[in-house]
Write a structure and sequence with these properties.
By secondary structure, this protein is of the alpha/beta class. It has 10 helices and 9 strands. The longest helix is centred in the middle third of the chain and has 10 residues. It is globular, with a radius of gyration of 17 Å. The mean pLDDT is 97.
Length: 215
């Protein structure tokens, strides 16, 4: 069994803004109303994202330009190297799509990171998702069931650290050994009485791990 892994959400945790908001603000004005319907639970998360990502209508070179303009937590590239140098594996676990995450990793020269997410591809000037309903980690609501992914990983690692920021992250937080929470996830986990470490960014996570002699 491997010693430990650090698993992070992407949108709003690694990135400072959800990619779907970038798309809505630049290309999909109707997305504001769609967002309200989603929050009112009239749409599943995956339905919301599929609609937004298929409403870009731009050449791929422009979409990639937009993706790499997405600001990330400045500490992330070094944090990932610190995890790997300290004997851990770093994973990104996202209910978005690997399409934009891989472009971000490439842009920052980040290597040896497994991305567990909904498969995405460029076609007809938009981003489309391929969902595998037969996958053991499939979720009808999110496309990918983050809790099941963490449960599977616990068979492989002695310790799982997890970091997230929003409602989908409350489900894997139940199974991680240590959960770091920021933004909306803090109140959600308090209400659910799930243990967590409140943080604002990756620098605070690094400090926690340093004090635990992990780094």
């Amino acid at each position: 069994m491997k010693k430990w892994a650090f698993v992070s959400d992407f949108d709003g945790t690694i990135s400072k803004e959800d990619f779907y908001w970038l798309v809505i603000k630049k290309y999909f004005e109707e997305g504001h109303d769609l967002f309200k319907k989603w929050k009112a639970e009239e749409l599943l998360d995956i339905e919301f994202l599929q609609t937004v990502f298929s409403s870009i209508h731009q050449e791929e070179v422009k979409i990639i330009e937009d993706i790499v303009s997405l600001q990330i937590d400045e500490a992330v590239p070094q944090f990932i190297r610190d995890v790997q140098r300290s004997g851990g594996d770093f994973y990104i676990l996202s209910a978005g799509t690997d399409y934009y995450i891989q472009h971000i990793l490439s842009h920052y020269g980040i290597e040896n990171v497994d991305v567990i997410s909904n498969k995405g591809y460029f076609h007809d000037n938009n981003i489309h998702l391929t969902l595998n309903e037969n996958a053991p980690t499939y979720s009808k609501r999110y496309g990918i069931d983050k809790a099941k992914v963490i449960q599977q990983m616990k068979k492989e690692y002695e310790t799982i650290y997890f970091f997230g920021d929003s409602e989908p992250d409350s489900h894997p937080a139940v199974y991680a050994d240590v959960t770091f929470a920021k933004a909306a996830l803090i109140a959600i986990l308090k209400e659910k009485e799930v243990p967590f470490v409140p943080v604002n960014d990756f620098n605070e996570v690094r400090e926690y791990l340093r004090l635990q002699n992990i780094f």
